[in-house]
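If you are new to this repository, start here. Below is one unmodified record pulled from the training split, so you can see the exact layout before writing a loader.
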Amino acid sequence: MKKNKDFNYFDEFINLTDYCCQSAVMLHDVLSNYNPLEIEAKMLKLHEIEHMADQGMHNVMNKLMREFITPIEREDIISLVQNIDDVTDAIEDVIMRMFMFNIQRIRPEALEFTELIVKCTQALKTATEDFSNFRKSKTVKDNIIEVNHLEDIGDKMYTVAVRNLYISSNDAIEILSWTQIFNKLENCFDECEDVANLMESIIMKNT
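And here is the target side for that same chain:
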């Protein structure tokens, strides 16, 4: 009987981070060309990407249940795919809040966030693309550092954005809505950093 093609966990890590990148690019595009009349349709489209990411994560879990030998510890594979999926979920959370709060116009700081989120997810993907060679790869380590650097920028950006919001607006609903949206945007960096830190931990455990 013909054997099924070997399942490559490292390829699946790449596929999952690609969904993060797709979501980040789409979010940035939605905000750059914002039309409140289209936000529901855009939210549903982004949810399709999130659904494919969930399916990819479940495929990895199903494979793990049937395999005894894995390239890295099973617990690390589970944590890594879940953390990567959390990034896509976090990006979707942003557009969901914009729909829920019926946002009519985009604050300029939001575009700075989404531009940086695109860079952060791309750094994650670049790291996963060479993660199978993590014991020797400088690319992986450099991009882990880059993600942490971008997360630090995101933290500072969040502080400034919320301060500017409270200085420039007297509208309680606007302040409430955008405080939560900025929080969700900042959370995207935190989720990316969690993936990068886990990758670093896996490298340390296996070298």
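Two things worth knowing about this chain: The helical segments are 9-32, 39-66, 74-100, 108-129, 138-168, 172-205. The mean pLDDT is 95.
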